[in-house]
Structure formats: C-alpha cells, structure tokens
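Notebook entry, structure prediction.
Reason for the run: the old model in the group folder had no record of what sequence produced it. Starting over properly, with the input documented here first.
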Amino acid sequence: MPPPHRDDVIIAVVGVLGGLLLWSLGVRNTGSRQFFPDWAALVPLLVIGPTVLLRRSVHTVTLPVGVAATVADQFTVGNLATVVLFTDLMYAAVVYGKPSTARRLPISTGLVTVVVTLVSLAFLPAPQALLNGVLTGIVGFGPALTGVTLRNHREAAIAARLRAEQTALLAEMDRTQAVAAERARMARELHDMVANHLSAIAIHSTAALSIDSPATSREALGVIRENSVQGLAEMRRLIGLLRTAGAEQEAVATPSLDGLDALLEQARANGGASGLAFALDDARQPDGEPLPAPVELAAYRIVQESLTNALKHAAPGTVRVRVARSDTALSVEVESPYGEQPGPRAPGSGAGLVGMRERTELLGGEFTAGRQGPVWQVRAVLPAEEKAVTA
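New structure, fully documented this time:
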C-alpha cells in the first residue's frame, strides 16, 4: 500500500484538530443527547479522521467506515468536523474509486436523499422535513455529484491527451513514410539516370584499357565523353528539381515516351561495339488521350533501365522495345538476347530490377522479368489512369 498523500495528511490533521476545537468551544450539531455524554461525539471524529489518510487507496473500506461514523455521530451531540470529513470521503470515493463505484454513488445518494425527504415528510412538519432532505443531499449527493463531474472532466482530458499523442504519433509515422518514399524515389531516379551513362563509361573504358589500338581508344574516349556530359546534365536536372520543386518545372523536366527515339539512338551509340542493335515498335496511337506524367515517366525509366541492363549483360543481337496502349493500360516490353557477352562487362547490383518493380507497383501495374527461351524479357503493364501520386 502506498504511503498517504500529503494532501490527505493535511485534510486529516486539520479535520481532527478542527473538530477538537469545535468540541472544546461547545459547538454542537444536534443538541444535547441525554443517553450519551458530550465526549462521545469525539469517538466518530477520531475514527473518521485517520480514515481520510486512506481515501485514495482503499475506498471500499473508507466509505463504509465514514458512513458508520457519521451515523454514530447523529446519536451524540454531533460534531461538524465529522460531517465535513465524511463529505470528503464521499467525494474521494467517486474521484479515485472504480468506474462502477463512480457511476453508482451519485444515483444511490440521490435516492437516499429522496427517501429521507419522504420519510421526514411523513413524521415531521414540512419545513423540518425539507431541511432534513436538503442536509442529506448536501452531505451525500452533493459531494458525489461534484466528484463525478470532476472525474468526467479528468477522463475527458486524459482521452484528449491520448488522442493528441496518437495524432502526433500518426503524423510522425506519416512523415517518416513520406521521407522514406521520397528517398526511394530519389534513389530510383539517380539509379536510372546515372546507371546508363556510367555503364557505357565502364564498358568503353575497360575496352580502351584492354585493347591496345589508337582507333579503339579514340572511339571509347568519345563515347565516354558523351556519356559523361549527358550524365552531368541529368544530374543538374535532378538537382534543379530538388532545389526548386514546382509542378510546372517538374512537368517540363520529366522525361516522357516521346523521348524513346533519342533513348534508343543513345543505346545504339553505346552498344554498337558490343554487337548490339536496337529496334523500337511503338504501337501507341498518335492522337490518343495523353497519359499521366507519372505513367509516362515510369514507362520511360523502365525502357531506359532495360536498355542499360542489355548493354551490360546481353549477348550480341537485337534488343527489341515494344510499347502499346489500350483503353485501360500501357504495356512496355523489352527483349534482349540471352547469353554470354563477349568483351568487357559492367557489374550489376540488381537495384535496377527492384526500381522497375517498385515503379510499376506504385502505379498499380504488373511487372515481370526473366528468361523466356533465347531472350531476357522485361514486361510491365501500367494503368492508363494514374493510381498513385508518384512513380
């Protein structure tokens, strides 16, 4: 059992000392009782006083003891301090007791007040009967009603604080998820933009180092320079988007499927030395409804990453890109020859496939990648309507 609260000690001490002072001054509640001496009024006071020390912890004991002491006080000359301490016990039982106790006590004390009033009206004059009812209500019903009101306010404040904490926690979770999603988006953009150029640089620099030919070295250096310049331009574009993020700027800077021809032309320049050819089959309707920008960007990046993977891993042959659109979906398919690639190769990390799958799933589409006979096939089906905020 925890030690008594400081406030409870103060209430108990002040109540008992006040009662002793009132008794010594001859202040009485009920007048002289012939069958008990005057000092008998101190017994209920000295019983209920120490009970106040336990008003917060053992309400099931303190309230019955308080009721018994108060009833016993009515058979003596009476002490006002005993009644006041009982009202505090009633109040504490509602505030600190069980929820069921807090619900029952106002009702029960209200009924007791009504019963006392009706019984008094049956045996006493109306003014005296009403006075008894009022006093009973002040001693019992009043403290219980005050306690339940305070308890309801406390519970409402606790509930509001919990709701505020939950709201703050949800806001923090949303912020964390938004940051993680933005980091993933930036990672995909950086990978898709830079991997193509760096792969070409790695392959041609390896070729220049392994083949001792001035012509080969010059051709490799030309490709390296071109991809370096384009990679820097792409990096500047992304940095510009991050620094000044605006809808108009993003719409201007975001790649679209209209740039597929230029993308394949760049792939031909990078993969010609590896025996790769590139073909584009664009079955979209030129006068069809425009696709949402995230869908266009996702399709463009999937083709770009597939061409980068073909440049790094495909065997000599033709890499075929097919783009088609129906009323509800846009399909992107890239097939590259499967087999051992002669000459230098650029290492892969697998992040490209992960990024393509993430882009597709964020838009609610379907993505597959794997070997289909003699070719490696990458296929994505994207909804023609945007289902996600970003790709």
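Summary: The domain at 255-391 is CATH 3.30.565.10 (Heat Shock Protein 90).
The old model has been moved to the deprecated folder.
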